[in-house]
Amino acid sequence: MNPSLNLPGWTHVKSGKVRDLYAPTELATHDGRDTVLIVASDRISAFDHVLPTPIPNKGKILTAMTLWWFEQLGDVTPNHFISTDVPEAVEGRAMITERLEMVPVECVVRGYITGSALSEYRKTGAVCGIELPDGLKDSDRLPEPIFTPAAKAEMGEHDENITFDRAEQMVGRDVARALRGTSIALYRRAREIAADRGIILADTKFEFGRRMQPGESGLVLGDEILTPDSSRFWDESEYVPGRPQPSLDKQYIRDWLTSDESGWDRVSQPPELPTHVVEKTKERYVRAYERLTGRTWED
User: Fold this and answer.
1) CA-wise closest residue to 249 among 233, 226, 273
2) Which end of the chain is more exposed for a tag (fewer CB within 10 A), N or C?
């Protein structure tokens, strides 16, 4: 998806790793709130790099999953979604949302230990300052979900894992506690929903913002939620603790990028993805969508 695409009524403002943001060319509000258009492209990122090869229709899958999750979790916390009445050129991959002042803390919740959290645990016995029981193995379920925040970085930079104390210093005690409480509540509900469909939600991340209007308070859930880009999904029928799990997310791409086949040093420009990696990644995204929503995906 080309961020310079001419969309009637909208002007391109900025692009992130995956999404493009547009502002209305004329002041447009919804119930007195400023609006923005968020377009999910087919770009995919890994190890803080945007890869040169898109995953066909990934943006549409992410948007459909996010909208479905907003429906499931709307009673837990408010979100920024307003409408899917978007320009035809981005239909299916875009939504009109409320404009928020985003909180500069990425809210990661982990119910299982794997990936970077496992590496940190093996070195220190803790994750983001949270002490964990001895003897945990790869993919073990944690006694309770943990909140492991990160400081958001600019595109191309690595998000920095931080302690809760550091999060409090960044956004204030009350906001940090609200972020933690709401994130864990969302994770718990989503984990139950996924489990009913035979899927383990190992970990996920949320982003929140504040409303721009004077006198407004409270946090609003923004960005995408609970997609294969922002979460680890495992098939419960294949789950075996003590080893990495087959996943329904972009872990397949991460694994290929760190393999001898890719030859990538994680510093230079990433290589093009071979056809089989693109196809298998798309297949995993579709499976995650269909298993969770119970709907059939049609490109």
Assistant:
1) 233
2) C
Positions of CATH 3.30.470.20 in the chain: 102-258+286-291
Cβ-based neighbour number of residue 217 at 10 Å: 6
For 121-156, what is each residue's pLDDT tens digit? Answer: 999 999 999 999 999 999 999 999 999 999 976 654
Amino acid, single-letter form, for residue 259: S
Integer CA distances (angstroms), 35 to 82, 173, 213, 224, in order: 8, 29, 12, 16
Task: Give the Cα-Cα-Cα angle 269, 65, 27 (nearest 5 degrees).
Answer: 85
Q: What is the pLDDT of residues 180-239, one digit of tens each?
A: 999 999 999 999 999 999 999 999 999 999 987 666 668 999 999 999 999 999 999 999
pTM equals 0.93
Q: Where in the chain is the domain with CATH 3.30.200.20?
A: 10-99
